[in-house]
Design goal:
About 55% of the residues lie in helices and about 15% in strands. It has a four-stranded antiparallel beta sheet. It is built from five helices and four strands, in the order ββααββααα. It has one domain.
């Protein structure tokens, strides 16, 4: 991924074909966080009012629903990814930059949950054997987050 151009309102990024395939796969895997009721923290189940936890899960479900709709609109918005000299360009409004980072983080965390919340993610072969798609989406989402942040930081300098 590379930064092609910037304006006061948007940035244009370029992806090669493999990055494009992974990027679309990662976005289409949203929402990856399971709907199963997860406690707020490992020790919170004993201290929370069930109504409060239900309200939080409802709010998160509405948030995911809104993000899913926005992702669909974003991906289907005309020619979001345009072929350009052997690579693919996409424009991202500056106001949507943090939103995209949050979506990528939700995908990364959701697939980590699907992998069983492993404390050690440094054994890729074990995680690949467990669920290859979840592992690849988790890693690709993290890579896109890091690259977007690196490119944006360079743009701000």
């Amino acid at each position: 991924m590379r930064l092609v151009s910037t304006t006061p309102t948007s940035r244009v990024f370029a992806l090669n074909e493999k990055e494009r395939v992974f990027f679309l796969g990662v976005l289409r895997s949203y929402p990856a966080v399971p709907d199963a009721r997860q406690p707020l923290s490992r020790g919170s189940a004993d201290h929370l009012d069930p109504g409060d936890e239900h309200m939080l899960h409802q709010a998160l479900a509405e948030h995911r629903k809104g993000n899913s709709a926005k992702i669909r609109r974003w991906l289907n918005g005309g020619s979001r990814l345009k072929a350009a000299g052997g690579e693919w360009h996409f424009s991202l409004a500056r106001k949507d930059f943090n939103w995209l980072l949050q979506v990528l983080n939700d995908v990364r965390v959701g697939h980590w949950i699907q992998l069983g919340c492993p404390d050690d993610v440094h054994d890729p072969l074990a995680l690949l054997r467990k669920d290859p798609t979840a592992f690849l989406h988790m890693e690709a989402a993290g890579m896109f987050q890091m690259e977007l942040l690196r490119l944006a930081k360079g743009d701000a300098d």
